[in-house]
Design goal:
mainly alpha
Length: about 100
Amino acid sequence: MRRMEKWFANPAAAILLVVSNLVPLAGVLFWDWDVGSIVMLYWSENVILGVYILVKMIARATVGGWFAGVFFSVHCGGVCGVHGVGPRATGPRLTTPN
């Protein structure tokens, strides 16, 4: 229950979350985005958040924090790499026919 109380304590964050999740819907409805574009949008979001988290980890690092930063970089970089290559490898199957 505490998570819900914390969430409703910041309505701007809730509004931003809802609006940011409506962007892909608007892209499909109004800007003719295909599935591949949406997958790449979410992949880009994942990369940006990974870099942000890494910067926060390094800024607050102690000796053990540096190891955690390196571990996170390898892990997150591997996941982002696989998720970035997957949509490119499947290519035309992720796009809608014209």
